[in-house]
Amino acid sequence: QAPLVESGGGLVQSGGSLRLSCAASGRTYGSYVMGWFRQAPGKGHEFVAGMIGRGTTTYYADDVKGRFTISKNLATNTVYLDMNSLRPEDTAVYYCVASLSYRDYDKLRSYESHDYRGQGTQVTVSS
Known about the structure:
There is one protein chain. The chain is mainly β. About 5% of the residues lie in helices and about 50% in strands. The chain contains one helix and eleven strands; from the N terminus they run E-E-E-E-E-E-E-E-E-H-E-E. Strands 2, 4, 5, 6, 9, 10 and 11 form a seven-stranded mixed beta sheet that branches. A hairpin with a 5-residue loop joins strand 4 and strand 5.
């Protein structure tokens, strides 16, 4: 089984909501850091949200603060990204990431720095 499996993407109208899920298994189970990145067509990977430890410490990109919420089910080691008030500019492939330890804030916001990355799930927001 893949170490990170995302689900929940889809097509939604502007102003709508979606919930993304990322199930960790095997060697990623119990990862200390988990988070979400996104990649829009023609652009690089952009940090969206991150969570440290059991979830008491979270970080968000400025343009999703107040709209997106990252959370974690400790029993199943599944991380969620609840996305509200979606905008067309949120359209992207969303990737789950995990790392076994926290290094620093800059590494948290660097897609390539994470130990594991999921296959991505498409989110499309129509205007």
